[in-house]
Structures are given as structure tokens and as C-alpha cells.
Amino acid sequence: MTVAARKIQRIFLTLTLGNTLAASFIWGINTLFLLDAGLSNFEAFAANAFFTAGMVLFEVPTGVVADGWGRRVSFLLGTVTLAGSTYLYYLLWQLSAPFWSWAVVSVLLGLGFTFFSGAVEAWLVDALRYSGYEGGMEAVLGRGQMVSGVAMLVGSVAGGVIAQATNLGVPFLLRVGVLLVMFVVAFGLMRDVGFTPERSTHPVKATRAVLSASIENGLKNPPVRYVMLAAPFSAGVGIYVFYALQPYLLELFGDPHAYSVAGLAAAIVAGAQVLGGWMAPHVRRLVGKRTTVLILSGILDAMILAALGFTRVFWVALVLLALWALISSAGIPVRQAYLNDMIASKQRATVLSFDSLMGSSGGVVVQPLLGRAADVYGYPASLAIGGAIELIAVPFLLASRRQRHYADAANAPAGTSNAGPQPA
After folding, report:
1. Most buried residue among 25, 101, 162, 388 by CB atoms closer than 10 A?
2. What dihedral do alpha carbons 404, 408, 413, 415 form, nearest 10°?
């Protein structure tokens, strides 16, 4: 890695650390926060569904910002929007506001995150290539996931402990403060390198162009299309499981006010994310195709969720949670590298944002569906149903594998075949 590439990596890791730390202050207690505000399970997960609906709604317009005004501008707008909408969430909790207001602000939270999705990853990949880095992206993205996991570990544990020592609203205020600090850091460090924004004076036309490019370079590209079509099932279930485990573990623990236990659950996921990020390039060196990792990850995740549906022992549930998070985390950098190697630089942020849109669209449907299942049948049954839904992603991943794209075997172990369509 060149000196310039190392500098880009350091900036990426700094931004990842700060942003994840800010976001994770509430991840361990978000569902408890919503339930404490007077929402039912269905309403709490419906509020989360409105959050993912906001991501679906704004992914393409914010993609225009990333590709037309720059990835740096998109990041800065994301910090401000997310800080403001998080503070509104805090106010709603104080006022015991009606459900419709939670739905509106949840959409704004989704808007904040769409400024980040695709833009940061696209900034990293383009800047690294421009700086002369020619290695596999699993290593760098894996490091990013490790840093993100450490930040999540610290933030989620701190959020749970602080909530228990004070109240459920304080972690939300901490998130606002750290996001404002990250605005200043990104303003000083982040520059668009290896990418020239193409500004348009016609936002509507630009949005249509971005949507058209997303479809042309995403859904119309068979190996990319099938990975994207798998996303609603895997991502939708993953979002639900993460937030459902908070009240579920408290239920198993026997103390509904032990918020630090909910933070512990998020911390376990964070620790698994660190280990998974480290494992990703090592796992990649053991197999010839990236889709092998993705398919096995989906099957094993579904089996673990089914097992979670039958356990009634707190410590067993924690072990299963750790395994689920570890397997999921090890597959994420491999999936990211697979997609990035199939996307041209000019459309990178656009297609990655559209991929995020596909995953979020699954959350819009899956979260309230499984939340309702939790109301009627209990959390264990809802987790088992989630495992069955995640299995639907596997045939799509198999279809992507059958396209034999060069990216599936890129940077493969010595002695394996790299046969398949090469990049233009």
C-alpha cells in the first residue's frame, strides 16, 4: 500500500470510528426506548420500518448528492441531518408523542443514514485506486468493519450503562454531540480524490438519471441483480433480529429494567463484528469463490435463528447470538468486495446506494411482520420465522454464482480458476 493509500485508509477508519460510535450509543436500547415511550411491539417495529422506508425513499435522491455534489458533501449533510432527527426522537420520548409523529421522525432518521450509504464506501474505493492501491478490498473493508465493531462495542455498552444510571434519553443526546464533532472532523480531513462530481442544475433530471443508472448497472447486470435481490431477505431479517434481541434477552434474563444487559447484547454483536472483519480476508483465502462464503453464511444464519427460537436459557441465547453475529460479519466485507469489483467507478456510489435501498425495502416489510409475530406468538417464534425468511436469499446468491463473473473469483487462492467475464 502506498503512502497516499495509507493516508486514505486512516481517514476512512477515523470517519468509521466516529460515526459508528455516535450511532451505537442507542443501538443497545432503541427498542426499549420506543417501548418505554408507550409503543407496542408492533408499533415499535413499525417505527423502525418507517426508518427503513425513509432509506428506501431517499436513497436515490441522496445518490444524486453523492455523485453530483461529491461524497464529502454527502457525508457532511448526513451528520447534520442525523443529529437533528435524533434530537427530535429525544423530544418525542419526553412528550410521550403519538405514533404518527414517531413515523415522521423515523423517516427523517432514514434520510440521515442515506447520505452515508454508498457514499463513504465509494469514496474509499475510488480514492484507494487513485492512490495506487491494487490489492483486494476485503482487507481494507475488513479493517473498517473491525474499527466499526470496536466503536460499536464501546458505544453500545456505554449507552446501556448510561441509560441504566440515568435514563433512556441520555444516550440519544450523546449521539447528537458526537455527530456534531464528526461534522468538524470530516470537514477538515475528507476530500474527494479520484472522483470528479458531475453537478446538475436540474435535480429532477439528475434523480431520474441516477435511478436509470442504478437499474442499468445494477438490476440489469445479472450477477449484481441477484445479489441485490437477496438483500431484502437477509438485511430485513438482520435488522429485526438485532433490535428484537434487546427485549428478548431481557425477557430471558428476568429483569425488564436491566438496560446494561441490552447493551451487552449489542456489545457481543460488536465484538463478533471485529472478529468477523479480521476473519473475512482469511476466509476468502481458503475458498475459490466469494459466493461460497455468502451462501454458507445465509444457511448457517438461518439455522442459528431457528435454534434461538427454541432456547429459553439466557446464556445459551447469548452464545447463539454471538455465533449469528460472527457468521454474518465475516460475510459482509466479502459481499462488499464482490459488488465493488462488478461496478464501474462512475456509478459506484449510485449502485451501492441502490443496493442499500434494496436491503432497506426488505426491512419495511419484514420488521412489522415479525414484530406482529412477536406480539402474537412471542419473540422466540418470530426469530425462527426470520430464519425461514432469510433462507429465501440463498437461491438468488446461487443464481449470481452461476453467472461466473470474474469478480466471484478475483484475488482467489493460488490454483483456483478465475474464469468468467472480465471487466470492460
Report:
1. 25
2. 10
Rg of the chain on CA atoms, in Å: 20
- The 8-class DSSP code of residue 177 comes to H
Q: What is the grid cell recorded at 11? A: 481517514
Cell 431479517 belongs to residue = 237
Encode pLDDT of 341-380 as tens digits.
888 776 676 787 778 878 888 888 888 889 889 888 988 9
Helix, strand, or coil here: 45? helix
For 365-397, give one letter per residue: b (16+ CB within 10 A) or e: bbbbbbbbbbeeeebbebbbbbbebbbbbbebb
Q: What is the pTM of this model?
A: 0.71
For residue 422, the model assigns a pLDDT of: 45
- Rounded distance between C-alpha atoms, residue 129 and residue 391, angstroms: 35
- Tell me: pLDDT of 60 over 80: no
CA distance readout (Å), 296 to 136, 208, 300: 21, 37, 6
List pLDDT tens digits, range 1-34: 788 889 999 999 999 999 999 999 998 788 889 9
Cα separation, 93 vs 91, whole angstroms: 5
Query: How far is residue 386 from each of residues 22, 293, 299, 365, measured CA to CA in Å?
Result: 28, 20, 12, 12
